[in-house]
Amino acid sequence: MIVAFEQLFLWFVGYSVIGWAYESTFVSITSRRWVNRGFLNGPLCPIYGVGAVLGVVLLSGIANPVIVFAAAAFGASVLEYVTSWGLERLFHARWWDYRHYRFNIQGRVCLLGATVFGAAGVLIVKVVQPLVQAWTALIPSPLLHAVCGLFAALLVADIMVTIRGMAGFEENLDKLKAAVQEYAVRAGESMPFKDGQPVVRRMRAWSESSQEVFVRWRGAVLDMLSHQQRRMIDAFPRLSSTTSDTYNALIETVRNLLKHTK
């Protein structure tokens, strides 16, 4: 029983790493720069690992690939929707948004993503997993125990560091907002936050006006936002607050400042 559970966990880690590699490569190519595309700091996206393992456990006994495709597409979409909803409730932020795609549900899932997940499900269940299962069956039990124990410890530590790093995200954005308002007063300008885009344009203009101002704003971002918070803003182009348009304006401003530092 323990060995079977550890094999499942090892598959989860492996597919999570593959998912991270896929996400990071795709986003890096479209962004034309390297992006560590993952909620965690380590090289893995757990949502891919969970989806793949569930697909293997639930769909391996189905012979018809069309049924596997439909079930994988539906199951992965449910998992993605629930994950999006859970992260939003936990951090008051939305990490991805498919509203710019046709046939989406509240921007959390879309038909294109479901199609990709369905095809990936067939590939994993029918082609990849039989090989993976054969390889992992060759690992001696003592080595399997050690490897799984190490991976579990690293995963728990990464989750704790990530959650701690994202704590107080909105409070830190409030501090940045206060800094923007203070600078506006000193510059003899008003800074209305009701509409986010003027804020973004105004701060971009300030930052581009002189190297001194740019360095000042970059320092404020580094001081007020944790490394984890800055990495999330940089890695998720559609990261947005669900509570305030002001926060979204500040997030976009921070994203622009981070781009100019690379």
UniProtKB/TrEMBL annotation:
It comes from the Bacteria. The chain crosses the membrane at residues 12-31, 38-60, 66-87, 108-128, 134-157. Keywords: Membrane, Transmembrane, Transmembrane helix. Coiled coil: none annotated. Pfam families: ABC_trans_CmpB. Signal peptide: none annotated. This is Putative transporter. It comes from Bifidobacterium boum.
